[in-house]
Design goal:
Elements lengths: L33 H33 L8 E3 L2 E2 L5 H13 L8 E5 L3 E5 L7 E2 L1 H11 L6 E2 L4 E2 L2 H14 L10 E5 L2 E5 L4 E4 L1 H12 L5 E3 L1 E4 L5 H15 L4 E3 L2 E3 L1 H7 E4 L4 E4 L1 H7 L1 H4 L10 E5 L2 E5 L4 E4 L1 H11 L7 E2 L3 E4 L5 H6 L4 E9 L11 E3 L4 E3 L6 H14 L2 E4 L25 E3 L6 E8 L2 E8 L5 E6 L3 E4 L3 E4 L13 E12 L2 E12 L4 E4 L8
Helix pairs in contact: 2-3, 4-5, 7-8, 8-10
């Protein structure tokens, strides 16, 4: 073995491996005698060690020469040379070269089941080369020395690809939705519908075919797959023979009434996959409605209303009904039979949500207050018979008529209920008590809280232009009185003169003023409390007709 002497650097910039002379190593002749062979045998390990050192170091030099970048020399992707580059450099080059490759953005060809040729826009389905994944594959799988064509890693939106290919397959009548198994009735005669398989695009298989063929401009061949339903033709025939036919052969006795074959046919449903029979409870109840009308009692809540000038309670009634859910379950079990077709119809009892005792405990026994106003009487949303439970707040809402709001306020004020929210008129209305009144409109609600500890029934009556609101319950206070303070900051109304004619109507106007009022609660002859109300009215102009055009003073 010859020791490598120092030498000049090689032409490339790869490092040259150098190592020291191995002492005591020289060529030797083959020994002629056993005595000479022993020293020779002892020298062979030294020879082999030297050979291995040279080989390993030489191999290391080759690695350094071939693998100076991340990508092995000779590596190509779609014809783009990447060998000797770092991963970042290779990624940049691949993006640049592929970005200018028109063949990767032009529509490509897909063959559907070998019968239909489809042109697909790769951009529309998200078809592209995954550059980072491709570079990683080139680094991992490329050979160190020699030519290595690394296939690109291609990605695609499976859902979009499926939609495009499915639409094409439907247009070409290659894809069919299939037919689910079913059994229906024509009258009381069962009619079978036999299943047909669905034929369509397998999204995953289509994506695999397209990504493998696209980058190389090959035709992507996509097969259509058939998906058979879980229910077979034999399953339909079995259900037909064992259930559908005998089900409507005769009525089923259910206690005191019969379930007729027509009702069975109406309520027996075969659906799902696998095809499964069931009794549709709603259809069963509809079919039995004429029979159940004479057997069932509807539940009724107790209520209270004013009748004949006095509160009257309509008593509650417990409901009694056939348990059609249990009947449906039991009915399905006996339908395959030709004899002993009988089930028990169970009845369920339903208690009313509001019992007579509940209403009686509300204590609606006397009239607390009543008030009548006169006006247009437009009370479409009147709360006739409205029950306000203890602690509840009744809202008239901003859409109520001003007349109704004014009337309800007066009744609630006199009944001693808590006024949570109210809005007096902007100008004084002579037909209402000053300050102690309310109107309604956008953003202006009337809210009254029942703080009596008993129920309160609001009864509204309309007669011509009169609206009367009466509140019934249990009286808490003996009397509600009112005290007024003086009117202050009084302003006189302006006078407006208008031309006479049908559009001009005289108005007397009204003063503006501020005033306080107190609601006084009296119980057992003593004052139990008082509540202050305050309001400031604007003046309302006086309208005079016939004193000159547009004049005012």
């Amino acid at each position: 073995m010859t020791v490598l002497p120092p030498s000049a650097p090689s032409e490339d910039d790869a490092p040259t491996v150098r190592f020291a002379r191995i002492a005591g190593f020289a060529p030797v002749a083959l020994p002629n005698s056993p005595a000479e062979q022993a020293p020779a045998r002892r020298r062979w390990p030294v020879v082999m060690a030297g050979v291995l050192v040279v080989a390993v170091l030489a191999g290391g030099a080759g690695v350094a020469w071939a693998g100076r970048g991340d990508i092995p020399r000779g590596t190509r992707v779609l014809g783009v040379e990447l060998g000797g580059l770092t991963s970042a450099e290779a990624g940049d080059r691949l993006r640049t070269d592929l970005g200018g490759a028109r063949r990767l953005t032009e529509p490509f060809t897909v063959s559907l089941a070998g019968a239909e040729i489809v042109k697909v826009d790769p951009v529309a389905i998200g078809l592209a080369v995954d550059v980072p994944a491709t570079i990683a594959a080139a680094t991992r799988d490329g050979r160190l020395i020699g030519v290595a064509d690394v296939p690109p890693v291609v990605t695609v939106d499976e859902a979009k690809l499926h939609d495009v290919l499915h639409a094409a397959a439907v247009r070409a009548k290659l894809a069919t939705p299939g037919t689910p198994a079913a059994i229906t009735y024509d009258g009381t005669t069962p009619v079978p519908v036999y299943p047909e398989p669905e034929r369509g695009i397998d999204a995953r298989a289509a994506a695999a075919a397209v990504t493998a063929a696209w980058a190389h401009r090959d035709v992507a061949r996509v097969a259509l797959t058939e998906t058979p339903p879980a229910t077979t033709r034999a399953d339909v025939d079995r259900l037909l023979t064992e259930l559908a036919v005998p089900a409507t052969a005769a009525p089923v006795r259910a206690g005191v009434f019969d379930v007729a074959p027509e009702v069975i046919a109406q309520s027996l449903v075969f659906d799902g996959d696998p095809l499964t029979p069931r009794i549709d409870e709603r259809r069963l109840r509809d079919g039995l409605a004429p029979v159940l009308a004479g057997l069932e009692t509807p539940v009724r809540d107790a209520s209270v209303d004013v009748d004949g000038g006095w509160p009257r309670i309509t008593e509650s009634v417990s409901g009694r009904a056939v348990d059609t859910a249990a009947l449906a379950r039991d009915l399905l079990a006996v339908l395959p039979r030709t004899g002993d077709r009988a089930v028990t119809a169970a009845f369920t009892e339903t208690r009313p949500a509001v019992t007579t005792e509940d209403v009686e405990r509300l204590g609606i026994t006397e009239r607390l207050a009543t008030f009548t106003t006169y006006g247009p009487a437009e009370v479409a949303d009147r709360p006739a018979g409205t029950l306000i439970r203890p602690g509840d707040t009744y809202s008239l809402h901003t859409g109520a008529s001003p007349q109704l709001a004014a009337t309800v306020f007066q009744a609630a004020y006199r009944a001693g209920l808590e006024i949570v929210e109210h809005h007096p008129h902007a100008t004084y209305q002579e037909y209402l008590p000053a300050v102690l009144e309310a109107t309604s409109g956008p953003g202006r609600d009337l809210r009254v809280r029942n703080d009596t500890g008993h129920g309160v029934l609001a009864d509204v009556r309309v007669s011509g232009r009169a609206v009367t609101v009466s509140l019934w319950g249990t009286r808490v206070f003996d009397r509600i009185d009112t005290e007024y303070g003086p009117r202050t900051a009084v302003t006189e109304p302006a006078v407006e003169y208008r031309d006479p004619g049908p559009d001009c109507e005289f108005e007397p106007g009204s003063r503006g003023f501020s005033q306080d009022a107190w609601r006084i609660f009296r119980k057992d002859g003593e004052e139990a409390g008082r509540e202050k109300f305050s309001w400031t009215y604007e003046s309302r102009p006086r309208i005079v007709c016939g004193q000159g055009r547009g004049a005012s003073r």
